[in-house]
Amino acid sequence: MCQQQTEKKSPAVSVIVPVYNVSPWLDECMESVVNQTFSDFEVILVDDGSTDDSGDKCERWEEKDRRIKVIHKENEGPSKARNLGIQEAKGTYLVFLDGDDWLDSRFLELLYGSVTETDADMAECDVYRVNSETGTKTYRVCSGDMGCQYSKKERMKYGYTSIWKCMFKKEIFVKNGIVFPDCHSEARAVYALLVAVSNRVESVTRALYYYRVLRKGSLTAKPRSSGEDENTIGIQALAILLQNFKNTGLYEPYEKTLQEIVKLKLSDLLSMFFYRKEKSDYLKLAGNYRSFIRKMFPDALDYRYITWGGYNLNRIVSYMNFLHDPYGRFNFSSLISLMNPVEGEFSWRHKNRYREIMVRREIRNQFWDILEEMAPHYLILDFIEERFDIAVFGNGYLTISDAFDGTEGLSANGEIIGRETEGCRQLWEQSCKQFIGRLEKQCPSMGIILVKNYLSEKMGDIYSQEEYPNLEEIRRVNRILKGYYDYFERNCKAVKVVEASKGRLYFTDRQYEYGAIPSHLNEIVNREIAGMVERCMKV
Question: How many CA atoms within 13 Å lie on the side-chain side of 85?
């Protein structure tokens, strides 16, 4: 007699959704799941002790669709909710979805096809980051740069450290004992390890996940209830990452990469908290990060530096193997305004907190105070911001950079000095000499590295590029910048020069998430230039 087939077939994929007080967004999230073009899945909704009606909504979704299972538990945080979901999952593959985000209708179809066709342990897609306040979305490429796929170590280091854009074979969690730790930045504790233990990682080069940013009440910037305080955020996650690599016997082959990962991820957190924390708390956080790096990697280089120049210079130095402290950044300014500061205060504000900080630094002429406070080993500068016109304010000047887009309450009350005028050239050269003289007097032992960056003339990818339509304007600006670079090099005896524009791929990535504008380069050439700068430091 044939045995009756009474057992329910296990699903191919388990979608695990931790739920905590996401009632306004949960229905949109779940609609995107149940309407997937791929249907062989289960959904595990883990209600993590919600205090709104999220739990009731979970119940209603379970009643609507037999593929949905609800688990109610006391509030312990998203990591324990995900771990419980993994324990309950029946699928061969796992997907993690946050309850306030949503999926493209082909998310499961395309990722499942990617992992099964190649027998990969992991696949990930690109992402749309959706601003909760404005509804605008930006495209985030996760697979590499300009069509060039990451190697395994590059993905571990530079990959978008999140697990909700991925599909994983459940076996790699079970076999390697991987769980989500109860700490802030928990994805940083597991992402690189998941990549390392995967036999193969595939990429779907389409944005299939919609990640909601700037949502009020989000846990992104808050410490968990695991004993962390506000000035150690991120340290526990990275300590766990290092220990997990040791537990799996993978620490030695990846030790250099892990050092780079730790510095890069802590630098990312510093960038996030720079404009959110009070100065005293921020400096404690940065100090704790440096102490952690010294403890974990006693032989690691630890150069402090200040940057003066364009925002893309920040991207360049972020690829060097150091902790990158945004407290030492000066963007949206010029040597004219630095050496001829305005007097008095201005009543104004900016919708972008980072830009507001940078412009206030110029108005208050804080460069010299922070230079003395940080006592950096190096000053790294370019003159990209010297392309902007100068406004006269009383006896001083302000740089009318694009940082002023979106400002309120601040406008020039006098003459505008055009950047292409002879008067501006003379004023800049005078200011430059004064700048060099003061540097030599105040910081005689500090290294000075001049990165000769220009506006890029082309945008594209590694396969093709096209010239910007305003090419002649770009070239006029670049001629001015070349004159400034040459003048500085002639007059500063201590300077070391990096010929950045000689990089083999010196152009803008047409898919740059903040817009393909000439002052931004692509990440491949940024890494090349970072190597040039780093070699100047080690000479």
Answer: 30
**What is the CB neighbour count within 10 angstroms for residue 78?**
21
Cβ–Cβ contacts within 10 Å for residue 319, how many? 21
Closest listed residue to residue 462, CA positions, set 502, 517, 505: 505
Contacts of 319 (CB under 8 A, 6+ apart): 526, 527, 530, 531
- Angstrom distance (rounded) from CA 434 to CA 343: 19
Cβ atoms of residues 100 and 25 within 8 Å? yes
**Helix H or strand E segment including 257:** helix 255-273
- Identify the H or E element spanning 472: helix 471-491
* pTM confidence score: 0.91
Instruction: Please name the residues in contact with 170: beta carbons below 8 A apart, sequence gap of 6 or more.
Output: 14, 86, 89, 91, 92, 93, 94
Token pair 């062989």 in the structure block, residue = 40
pLDDT in tens, the chain (539 residues): 344 444 568 999 999 999 999 999 999 999 999 999 999 999 999 999 999 999 999 999 999 999 999 999 999 999 999 999 999 999 999 999 999 999 999 999 999 999 999 999 999 999 999 988 888 899 999 989 888 899 999 999 999 999 999 999 999 999 999 999 999 989 999 999 999 999 999 999 999 999 998 655 554 434 444 556 788 999 999 999 999 999 999 999 999 999 999 999 999 999 999 999 999 999 999 999 999 999 999 999 889 999 999 999 999 999 999 999 999 999 999 999 999 998 876 666 777 889 889 988 998 999 999 999 999 999 999 999 999 999 998 889 999 998 877 665 555 556 899 999 999 999 999 999 999 999 999 999 999 999 999 999 999 999 999 999 999 999 999 999 999 999 999 999 999 999 999 878 999 999 887 789 999 999 999 999 999 999 999 75
Alpha helix stretches (DSSP H) within 125-252: 152-158, 170-176, 191-197, 235-247
Question: Cα(58)–Cα(71) distance, rounded to whole angstroms?
Answer: 9
Rounded Cα distance between 454 and 212, Å, is 35
Q: Residue 371 corresponds to which amino acid?
A: L
